[in-house]
Write a structure and sequence with these properties.
Blueprint lengths: L2 H9 L9 H9 L2 E5 L4 E3 L7 E7 L2 E7 L2 E8 L4 E2 L1 H6 L6 E4 L3 E7 H10 L1 H33 L2
Antiparallel strand pairs: 1-8, 2-7, 3-6, 3-8, 4-5, 4-7
Helix pairs in contact: 1-2, 4-5
Length: about 160
């Protein structure tokens, strides 16, 4: 994948939207382009969170271990990021990620991601806004799921 294609994809990724293309170019240069075939596992739940990924093309399944089986709980599409929470919080992966289709990603190493955040305050602010919006959406989803459970229980 070309550096320009990686930068274009990152510019369309909400977490990096509005960030100076020169900074994104630097981050893309320090990152690794990877390709996975449909069905391949990128990492497993509980693995070390040493990098974040930007989906350039394709889609990925978010898989959670439930009763000894991996269940798909979400799909990540093109121009989205995943794995950033494990990088930022230095925690194990909270889910497995598998290629739902053939998948091209940009793998952003923890050190490169954290270096970008520490050197450029506007990037840090954008990442905080993105994570706050994701938390708000997750909270709403959990509230809706809890309401559905209560309705099914009759109250």
């Amino acid at each position: 994948m070309s550096l320009n294609k990686a930068v274009e994809a990152m510019q369309q990724t909400p977490i990096f939207a509005g960030i100076d293309p020169k900074r994104l170019r630097l981050l893309a240069f320090m990152s690794e382009s990877l390709t996975y075939r449909a069905g391949e596992l990128l990492f497993d739940q509980g693995d070390e969170g040493d990098s974040a990924f930007v989906v350039i093309d394709g889609s990925a399944s978010v898989l959670i271990n439930i009763g000894g089986e991996k269940k798909e709980v979400a799909v990540i599409g093109s121009k989205q990021i995943f794995g950033e929470m494990a990088v930022l919080c230095d925690i194990p992966r909270t889910a497995a990620i598998g290629a739902k289709s053939d998948l091209d990603v940009l793998r952003i190493d923890r050190d490169a991601f954290l270096k970008l955040l520490s050197e450029f305050t506007e990037v840090s602010l954008q990442v905080m806004r993105f994570l706050a919006a994701r938390l708000e959406a997750t909270t709403k989803d959990l509230g809706a799921a809890q309401a559905e459970i209560n309705d099914l229980k009759g109250g």
